[in-house]
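ok posting inputs for the adenosine monophosphate job
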Amino acid sequence: MNRGIIQSVRGMNDILPATCQTWINVEQTIREVVSLYGYDEIRTPVLEKTDLFRRSIGEQTDIVEKEMYTFVDRNHDSLTLRPEGTASCIRAGIAHGLLHNSTQRWWYSGPMFRHERPQKGRYRQFHQFGIEAIGWSGPDIDSEIISLGNRLWKMLGLTDLRLEINTLGSRESRRKYIDELTRFLATHISELDEASVIRFNQNPLRILDSKDRNTKALLVNAPVIRDYLTHEDKTHFDSLCRHLDSLRIDYHINNRLVRGLDYYTGAVFEWITPGQGSQNAVCGGGRYDNLVQQLGGSPTPAAGFACGLERLISLLEGQEDRRQPDLAIDVWMVLLGESAALAGHPLAEELREAGIQVTCNCGGGSIGKQLRRADQSGARYAVIVGDQELESNRAIIKELRADDEQSGIPLENVVDFLTKQLNNKTTSL
Ligand code: AMP
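and the output
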């Protein structure tokens, strides 16, 4: 029998305790920012019927064609681990009657799954935080979600994200544009890279997204969607630009910005890190005015974005950390002998009851060893209890970072004493 080490699934990462604190900080900041804008949380299952993604993301997208984790379950239903969050939000909104003649500002966060080629910034399980603003058709909501993202970067201390915007126009303008683009590409088909040739037949718009150097050079002369927009599309996009100007949010119009999911319509945007290679998009979104209807609801306009948390966190780790992760607890209990342990654990419970974080030394050890562990833990105080202390019903409290020692605090006063000490420290910080 093979008894080797079992590895995690390729492209699916463990997030270890040392990194979890950064994740928690980011998640807390996300909660702060969404509440500033009045967005409500929605949680949907990680497993959905495969049809949901086929109908929304589009049959001829990379995600649906080759990246979904799809399997047939015991009832012979085809199910898929969600590759993104928007489709599920809309499905849930329709199923619960929350979208009809109504507006919703929602956010979600959680793991997504795509069978892509793993590399830095691209994983098979990754996490997205997303926003969905459903029921509004104007550019004001587009700029609201962009400014929510902008505020999140600010609150996290990320400074060099660049906003790129474009419009994919209405269905009518897009159809005209795709015809024109196809005509242009047909005359250069032999110069296209392999992936673009495949896309040419299935989804020519996606060729604009090619990372191939030759294809990119060729696209310099390709027709641009802005020349095919209807009056209404143009008015919407120009107004979005004015809104962004009024919010003093810098943006760059990128005529070649398209998104990898078919449900996008109208204005689209990406936040990118300049110079981070092909995995440079931290957040992407835009309008998806047809999706609610496509999934069986009544026609309802909507806009949203999804932000990759791994990429966000890797950027934060690359910069000086603005919010120092704080893994340290308040108190380490040094417990010398069984009687001390029997008295010390209930005392730790009392401290926790008062909101103080405590780690008890388990497994015994000399006082020197236990104090070394206390020191390594980063705790601010050690509470020392041994036979001698128990006899006099007292504990020694040692301030580990200041070398201050208070012997003989009566056990019944320990909670009060430490509560005051810790409060003083927090207020004087
Ligand atoms: P998308 O849902 O494809 O529009 O992607 C939105 C954001 O999710 C991207 O900008 C990335 O930050 C993140 N993302 C998408 N796919 C992956 C992946 N395979 N691994 C890590 N992050 C991803």
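notes: The chain has two domains: 17-170+230-317, 331-428. The first strand starts at residue 40 and ends at 41.
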